[in-house]
Design a protein that fits this description.
heterodimer; A: 347 residues; mainly alpha; ABC transporter involved in vitamin B12 uptake, BtuC; two-stranded antiparallel ribbon; 2 strands; 1% strand; globular; B: 502 residues; alpha/beta; Rossmann fold; 3 domains; six-stranded mixed beta sheet; 18 helices; 22 strands; 25% strand
């Protein structure tokens, strides 16, 4: 009888064995992912020492920036327990529309001084509009955001291809972007790229909004318990729509950085990174169940995923194996999130 | 009817080395009803979980029909004839009544092959639900049944497994008065068939009415046990809390001076929900709202606070008309609303005490166009109000409300609104599911607010509570106001009569 007692009390929250406690601490620790990243780099360093070369580090750094921006946007929708699958289609749409405005190959404002500014504003507007559309459909018609954003994803990735075909002869990409715009991708102040300055500024703003403003608290409350939030006077619908709008906005901002680095507008921009965006957020501890997420966490998630990706490529693995491994890593992160959720609920 | 069915002796159990049960002994005869009472955390649930196979005991002896038993899971317990009907029912709402009853022992066609014998299933289910007086078709999905009938399905399920002992944990918390009556009739019938019952409840009047024997637990020990006639409500309360509570309800000094109307409701109607509700609520007054579940009392509360729509009528707060469907506008005019569903609608269970407390006040606590917050000031504000009403927790900014007891959680919900210093407080079942000691404290908080000039609309299913606390009682039934009673003319029978009158 005493044996069963021991087993059962572990299950029901009684005494835990030491290894269980270590596992528990690791699972609940915020530094788990960071530690894994270091471990991964150390392990790969044996095989591919160039993983720590300055060139490679710079590559990884530049790769992280737009992904981080997009993942912060996705974090906002995940925090209200929704999802935005259209993030990368917003990027593609913004990218081709922005390029079509400023390209010197027959753009709407070709070679006009204001072209880059107008293009950027148009991209931002597209992001906000699609975001609001997602949010309104989700909240007003009470549809699952998975479905809503799946359809907007399909619609706008199709629309982006069609738009490009209508604006170019080749039909694949819009080149000839003005140098002032490309500066965002390659230029910088005192050796710090503009893209980095923009990203860090955004990260600080998001962090402050989440921790220091009423809106941030509302986002968390809606994610944790929308009904309790409504009774406490939180405008739940407006908060959810706001989060979708922010996700759209951040996708558009990420698209600006990507486009500037690519020096072209293409409808396949971001096509392959949807999984990275969602995965980075989840690895970074943003809960799919809502209510939980930090900017630092997302940064760590983006770092981890980018380093894994970079390392696998350095090892010379094929694209399909890189995909398979990344998929596995994200699955593990999602499972970890679920386990954490249960551990927390049990106390 | 005197042979012993269940004998528990010397039962001990600890969690983390903290003893939660100490030498617990219980006896239950065949066809008898044993009432088990005690405050939250007194060990009632642990004892029952051991009987039901959910937990394992550390030491002690459980005898069923003279044989020692030790169920290790609920399936085991069920095979022994012990059925446990939990407070939160464990039915599948999307499945039909018959499927729920026979879920773990479907009658099969062709012996062991996995084909359900629909006809036998239907026949047996029909018999099972007739035993509990449930007049629905066995194919009705459970989600279409009201709470009371769902409970009958649970009982039918227990009976279909030949249960000898049925444990009810707080079975009446979500039942209407009429459903409760029906449940009691059925319990009476079960007992006539020789089935034994353990009945756990906070509603002491019910326990005294229903049970043959009563056992009182406190701090994991049985502090009193015996036939029902040995007990009175006062004695039960004294045993449960371990000290004498001279009064169940704290005294309140009536507010002097002229009456000022805080809330005035005129002809509020919403088809199918409430009809032509009119009343005035004055500052410094407690207006009790009584009525059965489904009488429209909670629905009225939600309408008043702007959570649900209404098609006709007018709600005025201190002479300004309240816009419909705008909780924020109601809050800005000094209204507060404590929901009956503490876990589902009152709290963010995973968040800290202070995050919960400051949520309705964030806008007021913020500054500037960006609505900037100062986290340390927020925590301080939350700590002040939590201390004022004695929320029992060490660190308000680090303790998740999930870890608190029911009574403390309810205090957190009250604290949320106290921080806004409301002038009109709508309380929907403020003492549901909390123990006697915590109830008394909630009453004291209400009295303090009213003493300071606030108006309180106090909705409750417990008539004694309204009689003890209210200045006036409004009785509702079928969405209508059935009558008003003032303090001098309070009387349990009259109030019940008004609520039941068709």
């Amino acid at each position: 009888m005493s044996e069963t007692g021991g087993v059962l009390s572990t299950v029901s929250g009684g005494t835990r064995s030491r290894p269980m406690n270590v596992v528990r601490w690791l699972l609940l620790s915020d530094y788990l992912v960071l530690a894994l990243t270091a471990l991964y780099v150390a392990a790969l360093w044996f095989f591919v020492p160039e993983i720590l070369s300055p060139t490679n580090l710079r590559d990884v750094f530049l790769q992280i920036l737009p992904l981080f921006v997009a993942a912060m946007g996705l974090m906002m929708v995940l925090m209200v327990a929704q999802i935005d699958l259209s993030a990368t289609s917003i990027m593609a749409m913004g990218c081709v529309v922005g390029a079509s405005i400023m390209t010197d190959q027959g753009g709407y404002l070709a070679e006009h001084a204001s072209a880059p500014v107008v293009a950027i504003l148009a991209m931002v507007a597209i992001g906000l509009l699609i975001g609001v559309l997602n949010g309104v459909c989700t909240i007003v018609f009470d549809m699952p955001s998975f479905l809503v954003t799946l359809t907007t994803m399909m619609f706008f990735s199709g629309a982006a291809v069609w738009y490009t075909a209508a604006h170019t002869s080749s039909g694949s990409s819009i080149g000839g972007l003005p140098p002032a715009f490309i500066e965002i991708g390659y230029g910088g102040v005192a050796g710090i790229p503009y893209a980095a300055i923009i990203t860090v500024a955004l990260a600080i703003v998001v962090h402050l909004v989440l921790t220091r403003t009423v809106f941030g608290r509302w986002v968390r409350a809606v994610g944790l318990n929308p009904r309790a939030a409504a009774i406490s006077g939180v405008p739940v619908r407006a908060v959810v729509v706001g989060c979708f709008a922010l996700s759209g906005l951040f996708s558009a901002l990420a698209a600006i950085i990507y486009t500037a680095r690519l020096e072209a507008g293409t409808p396949i921009l971001g096509q392959r990174i949807l999984l990275d965006v969602i995965g980075a957020a989840v690895i970074g501890g943003v809960s799919l169940f809502g209510g939980k997420g930090t900017v630092i966490g997302v940064l760590v998630g983006v770092l981890f995923l980018s380093v894994v990706d970079n390392g696998l490529q350095l090892l010379g693995l094929s694209l399909s194996s890189v995909y398979a491994i990344k998929g596995g890593v994200i699955l593990v992160a999602a499972v970890t999130d679920a386990i954490r959720h249960n551990l927390m609920a049990r106390g | 009817m005197s042979d012993l069915l269940l004998k528990v002796s010397g039962l001990n159990k600890s969690f983390f080395g903290v003893p939660v049960l100490r030498d617990v002994g219980l006896e239950l005869h065949r066809g008898a009803v044993l009432g088990l009472v005690g405050e939250n955390g007194s060990g009632k649930s642990t004892t029952m979980n051991i009987l039901g196979g959910v937990l394992a005991k550390d030491s002690g002896r459980v005898e069923l029909d003279g044989e020692e038993v030790a169920p290790t899971n609920s399936r085991d317990a069920l095979a022994l004839g012990i059925a446990f009907i939990h407070q939160e029912l464990s039915l599948f709402p999307n499945l039909s009544v018959e499927e729920n009853i026979f879920l773990d022992h479907f009658p099969r066609k062709f012996a062991r092959l996995p084909f359900v014998d629909r006809r036998t299933l239907r026949d047996r289910a029909q018999k099972a639900i007739e035993l509990v007086d449930l007049r629905v078709s066995p194919v009705t999905p459970v989600m279409r049944l009201p709470q009371g009938e769902r409970q009958l399905v649970e009982i039918a399920k227990a009976l279909s497994r030949q249960a000898r002992l049925i444990i009810f944990d707080e079975p009446t918390t979500s039942l209407t008065a009429r459903e409760t009556e029906r449940l009691f009739t059925i319990i009476g019938r079960l007992r006539a068939q020789g089935i034994s019952i353990i009945y756990i409840s906070h509603i002491l009047g019910d326990v005294l009415r229903l049970c043959d024997e009563i056992a009182v637990l406190r701090d994991g020990q049985v502090v009193g046990a015996g036939p029902r006639d040995d007990f009175t409500i006062e004695r039960l309360v004294t045993l449960m809390v371990g000290r004498t509570i001279d009064r169940l309800f704290p005294e309140r000094n009536p507010v002097s001076g002229p009456q000022r109307t805080a809330l005035s409701v005129r002809g509020v109607s919403q088809p199918g929900i409430v009809k032509d509700i009119s009343f005035d609520l004055s500052l410094g007054e407690v207006l009790g709202v009584s009525g059965l579940m489904g009488s429209g009392r909670s629905e009225l509360a939600r309408i008043l606070f702007g959570l649900d729509p209404y098609s006709e009528g007018e709600i005025r707060v201190q002479d300004a008309k309240l816009p419909p469907l705008a909780p924020r506008a109601a809050m800005d005019r000094g209204m507060a609303f404590l929901t009956e569903d503490r876990r589902g609608e009152g709290l963010m269970m995973e968040a800290s005490i202070s995050d919960n407390i400051v949520l309705p006040s964030l806008v007021e606590q913020s500054s500037g166009f960006l609505r900037w917050l100062n986290p340390s000031e927020l925590t301080k504000a939350a700590r002040d109000v939590a201390e004022r009403i004695r929320v029992n927790a060490k660190a308000v900014d680090r303790t998740a409300v999930r870890t608190l007891s029911g009574g403390n959680q309810q205090k957190v919900v009250i604290a949320k609104w106290l921080l806004r210093a409301p002038s009109i407080f709508i309380l929907d079942e403020p003492t549901r599911g909390i123990d006697v000691g915590a109830k008394y404290e909630v009453y004291k908080i209400i009295n303090e607010m009213v003493g300071a000039g606030a108006a309180v609309l106090f909705i409750s299913s417990e008539i004694e509570e309204l009689i003890g606390m209210a200045d006036r009682i409004m009785v509702m039934g079928r969405g209508e106001v059935r009558g008003f009673f003032s303090r001098g003319s309070f009387d349990r029978e009259t109030l019940m009569g008004a609520a039941l009158w068709e």
